Amino acid sequence: MIQTGRSRVAWHWVFLMNLPWVATSYVEMCSGQPLTFTLRKFIDSPRLISFLLSINILFNFMVGVFTSFLSDRIWTRFGRRRPFLILGWTGVAVCLLLVPMMKSIWSLAVLIVIYQFFQDVAKSVEPLYNEVIPPKQRGRAYTIRSILFTLNGMLFSAVMIKNWDQEYDLSRMELGHVTGEQFTYWVGAVFLAAVVLFLVFFVHENKPVHEPARPRITGARSFCRQFIRDIFGDRHAWMIYMIYVCPSLAAAGTGPMLTLVQTDQLGYSKSLMGSFGFYGMCIGMGFVLVAGWLTDRVSRLKLFQLGLIVPALVNYAMFILFRFVFKFDMSIWWWFAFTTVGGAFSCMTSVSWGPLIYDYIPKNRMGSISAGFAFISGISGFLLMNLAGQWVHYSTAILGNPARGGTYDYSSVFHLMLVFSILAFALTMRFAREVKAGRVLPLGRMDVTTPGQERGHSSNGTAVC
């Protein structure tokens, strides 16, 4: 039985605790290219596609914030994190079964709202993961997680995306004809159901013994005051939020638009995208191993910074090439070469991000800080994804579409990516100065109280530094 609160854990625990994260990764991938393809059957408006896909990020702000906050303050017979994960992932599994069966954009839109609501109920997976895995093992644990993510992505590209347009005759199994689209979503539903059973029967949360007492909350006003103090009450937390949001800033909410650049403007088929996605992740596996080896040996912040700025420059160089040199007639081999180079450096961010952030978060505030993560990333992600959709719409209206086919110039989002990547890099420089000045402390590694508590303030760590 896997348990929380151990000073050292067996490595097979680390592997098993990554299974919920792999499930989360699969659901996130379903919310990317597949959901974009499904929406594209009904609409082509970049504004509407971005808005519908950003509902998940909005629920991060409206739902994920409160479930993460409450997971620090409740205790049930199932623990404090697991109830939210079990409820959320059960709801997502049911929705995944129904997504490919929707017949109109309106029914699909309603289901997306429900689906993404439950997805954000299950926001306490990161606190549970870090309560099981102690600080000294997290660098290698995140490397294992990145390897499993990469394997998951390889399978997703080589099987799900590559065969998206295929149809399979399963009449012998009384299932009739199943499309690649249905298969993709239904595999995710089965995967999530298995992870829910794993959490119910094989994971146990021990009630923390040394956690400081929290003030009792009575009434809505008291809840709101305590909520704001716990999440936003000190400078230390704000610095962590600043570094947390940097990868989202660098991506600039452009995921759906980049998919449409490949399909609508460069003319790549889904099968071709799936094959090359698989090749890229095979190569990326080696980069993950190198980044994982480095993350426990050199500055995690330096790795994080390289993983933000280098891919942005590489991607913009690719944009210049296919737009102004190849005139949107660029072989997928060129796309593969550029994205592989960018992906090599992106691995440095993906592997170092979690260990870097949780080096600065004490155990007693993981849920509250995760609520702050949901709040900050919810606002920024929702705004960025909708900004990307609006940007494509109005830049096409003003400048036209230089591509030979299609209605919109989706490739214009590369301008946004470069600008926001530079902004994200600037924020990491600010964070580095705060750390050097001693105003941001590695409380997760030290396993001590927050700065406010060290000065004798309230036990919930809400004093202003």
Main beta-sheet strand count, sense and barrel state = 2 strands, parallel
Q: Gyration radius, to the nearest Å?
A: 22 Å
Helix and strand succession? EHHHHHHHEEHEHHHHHHHHHHH
From the spread of the alpha carbons, the general shape counts as globular
Residues in β-strands, percent? under 5%
Q: What is the CATH superfamily label?
A: MFS general substrate transporter like domains
Q: Work out the helicity level.
A: over 70%
Number of domains: 1
The N- and C-terminal alpha carbons lie at a distance of: 40 Å
Structural class: mainly alpha
Strand arrangement, major sheet = 1-4
Output the CATH topology: Growth Hormone, Chain: A
CATH architecture: Up-down Bundle
How many distinct beta strands? Answer: 4
Give a written overview of the molecule.
There is one protein chain. This protein is an all-alpha fold. The protein has a single domain (2-205, 222-450), classed as MFS general substrate transporter like domains (Growth Hormone, Chain: A). Helix content is 71%, strand content 2%. The chain is built from 19 helices and four strands. It has helices at residues 11-30, 33-40, 46-70, 82-98, 105-121, 125-132, 135-161, 180-202, 220-232, 235-244, 246-251, 255-265, 270-295, 300-325, 332-358, 366-399, 413-436, 443-446, 451-454; strands at 2-3, 167-169, 177-179, 203-204. The strands form two sheets. It has a two-stranded parallel sheet with strand order 1-4. Strands 2-3 form a two-stranded antiparallel sheet. Strand 2 (167-169) and strand 3 form a beta hairpin. It is globular and about 65 Å long.
